Task: structure prediction
Amino acid sequence: MPSVAFYTLGCKVNFYDTEAMWQLFKNEGYEQVDFETTTADVYVINTCTVTNTGDKKSRQIIRRAVRRNPDAVIAVTGCYAQTSPAEIMAIPGVDLVVGTQDRDKLMGFIADIQRDRKPVNAVRNIMKTREFEELDVPAFADRTRAFLKIQEGCNNFCTFCIIPWSRGLSRSRAPESVLKQARQLVEAGYKEIVLTGIHTGGYGDDLENYRLSDLLSDLDQIDGLERIRISSIEASQIDDKMIAVLNSSKKMCRHLHIPLQAGDDAILKRMRRKYTTEEFAEKIARIKEAMPGVAITTDVIVGFPGETEEQFENGYRFMERIGFAEMHVFPYSKRTGTPASRMDDQVDEEVKNERVHKLIDLSEKMQAEYSKGWVGAELDVIPERAVRGEDGIVRLAGYSDNYLLIEFEGEEYMYRKHCRVRLTESGVNENRGELIEMLEPVEPAAPVASVDEVAQVSQVALRA
Result:
C-alpha cells in the first residue's frame, strides 16, 4: 500500500486543507504515516507565509522531508508555495509545487511525477481565481466538533498582511454545497460545526443577495445540529441582520472571535482596518445586548510601526473597557512585501516584548473575571477529553457554548455526549464543575470509548 506523510504549518484553515488533501490520497488507496518516524512514498508540506519566519520554517521542513526519503515525491502546497514557487522549486529534491488552488488535481500531478520524474510547478496567478475550491472533509479526529470551510481569500489588504497575495480575493462556497456538507457531518455524528475561512465573515460578498447571516439561518434549520460556531468575524461585518440572527438562534454559540488588532484609532488607520475604536465598541455593546453572556475573544498586534507609549496605553485602556474573555497577543512581525514592513519608526524588540507581556497579563485577568462570573451557572458541555486517574476517577473536560473549558467527574460513556454541568470553581484556562444530568440518552448497545482512545484523541480535540 503506498504511503503519504503530511506536515502542516500555520493556521486552522491550513489544517483543514491538509485534512481535505488526505481524503484525496485515501480515495486512491494510500495509508497515512507519521512524518517524523516513518519513511513515506509521498511527502506533502502545507506551508505558511504569514511571517518571514513562516517561510524559513517551511524551507526547513521541506529539506527534512527530502532527507527522510530522497526517492519520495516531495509536494509543497499552501501560502508560501503560492507566493514563492520559484524559491521552493530551487530546493534540491522538490518535485511538485501547488499553491492555494488546484489541490483537487494533486493526485494527477503525483501520478505524472512518479511516471516521468520531472518536477512540476503548478502554481497559477491566484488573483485571477474567482471560484471556491470544493474539497470536502467528512471526518475529523474529534467526533464532537467538525470544521466546515465556507470561504477562501480576503479583500481587505491590511498593511501588515500578505494573505490576499497568497490566498487571492474573497470567494464563497455555494450555499447548497455548505448545507449539504453540514448535513453529512451531522449524519456522521458531529454535534457542533465550526464555520471557517480566511475571512469567514466575508462569506457572501461575491454572492447575489445571500450573506453569512442567511447561511446561519439555514444552518439553524438542520435537525441534529446542536451548535454553530464562527471561527472569526470582523466587527465591520456584524450588521443588523447578523445581530438579529445572534439574538434569535438557539444553536449559535455564545462565543465570537472578533479581531481588534489595535486599540488606538491612529494605528488602526495605519493598519488600514475598516473601523474606529468607537465603532468597534458600539458593535460589541450591541452583540452583548443581543446575546447576553457572550464571550468575545480577539487578536491584538503589539508594536506596530510608529506605536508610541501613549498609543499603547490608549489601546490597553480600551481593551480593559471592552472586557474581552481572552486575547491572542502577537508582537508585530515584519512581512517582506507588505506596506507596514517599509514604514518608518519600527518599534524596538525589547519594547515590543514588554508590551506583549503587559497585554498577556491583562488577557489573563479578563479571562479570570469572565469565567468567575459563571460560577454557580448551569452550562451545557460536550466532553472532548476523558482520563481515568490513578485514583480510579474518570475526569471529563470539554467546552461550554460560551467557550469555557470545564473539567468534571463522570463516567467513560459520557465522552462526546451532551452533559449539563454546574460550574463550581473558575480559573484562567480551565474551570471545574459538577455533573447535573446527561442531556441525551445513551443506547445500551452503543460502544463505549476506551480511555486509551480518548487520551489519544484529546490533544487533537482540545487544540481546535
Summary: The chain has 14 helices and 18 strands.
